[in-house]
Amino acid sequence: MTSQAGRSFYAFRGIPYAKPPVGDLRFSDPLPVDPWLGETLDVTREGPTCIQYNTLVQFILGKEDCLKLNIYTHDLDFANSTRAVMVWIHGGSWFMSSGNGGLTDIYGPRYLLDRDIVLVTINYRLGPFGFLTTEDAEAPGNYGLLDQSMALRWVRDHIRYFGGNPDAVTIFGESSGAASVQHHLLSPHSKGLFHRAIAQSGSALNPWSIEKSVGEYSRLLAKDLDCLSSNSSEVLSCLRNKPARELAIFRKKIEVFKIIPIAFGPRIDTERELPFIPDEPKNLIEQKQINEVPLIMGLNENEGAFTIAMLLSNNGTLLRNFSEDPLKYLRSLSGVEFTKNGDQVINRIVEQYFTPNKTFENQLTELEQMISDYAFFKGIDDAVHLFSKFSDQPTYYYLFGHRGQLSVTSLLGLSPDLNLGVSHTDELYFMFTNDFLPRLNSTNDITVSKLLLDLWTTFAQDGVPQSDLVNGGWCPIEVDQTQYLKIDAEYPAMMNQSMPFHDRLAFWNQDFNPSTV
Is 391 tagged catalytic? Predict the structure, then answer.
């Protein structure tokens, strides 16, 4: 393949890193892949995405046999394997997307491979295939996270043959991929498998990063497929014999609004002999149960704009549905659909953010702020300060504030004149390529792409993010003192002050905490 700047590089795609998780291995921990001795593995094409009902395109994609990874590298000199390795963990709310690029997804390598790194992107099990649980040792869940750890083991054992340094591995991800990165920072399963970490727009402390209702949705799935039983083994045996598509389409049946509810995601799996997530992430950090490495964390100025854009897409059909029964949507958005006093929780949020007797359609800015604060800003800000206090390694904090020509609003078909700010996922188009999307061509977009790639790849090389575009350099956060890098085209620089949303977090910090309700 050829990078954006015209550099040639090698692509090895669809390499299996674990046994196919099918048949009796469905809802089981991943097993190492059998070697393909005496055969040549064809890695000229991407492997399938993991099976999913993708709510954005509204049909089932992928296959169950999907535990594959892609490697992009300049150099196959394994006698001199010195290049930093960057392993990308994709987002998608734990139930959709993939690590693929080019034709089937947005994580193509042509920008990053302008730099002297080895890029690895991975696929892992999603939805019920990755996270179903019987809430006991028969099926404790978290298979998708264990898949990621298995992929990291494969990278440790083999990446030197692709010019990569197994002692310089950076894990990075966005949204649920960023929450995954932080789960690896706190999991005994991933200890020693990576050396730096970057979490973009997601944290293990976000309310959706530990799902409280996975067992409830697992029971609903079993009921839907006539597999209900008080015996976990019988439930699992029944579900393992169902066609994969029948499990995948359950997503459509429970969908309230596009990405809501998540339903199947990580959980505290203490039923497991060695839990992947042994305790609440906040407790693990405070107990210093951390795989300590240098860490970059940050967020986009208007994370919740992603949701507003989806409400406005398709001529506003979803927005009209939302306005007819806003409490239904807000219950799911806030993750209290199974909470006894969920309506009481929602009423407190509505009182805090919205003006009475005014329609939600006329309060989209307030709705965006509520989603940004609750779903992203609070958990990310809390995690930054906890890691800076309890980890002995530096934590770097950023705020991404550049709205490019490619953004969620334009990709969802909304008017380019509609400016919802810098949304969740907007930074990805400066880092990755897709063969269906135009390349960056505005001066500011190219500048911001260079800035992000500078910072991320230098950090991967030695744990210190650097770019000649940053005035004064990027300093790690100090304990009890907020400072962050403002990333934009005009004047990227350190800000020695609290984040712009800081005052709004008081409601979530002191007055109200849904997790304790």
Answer: no
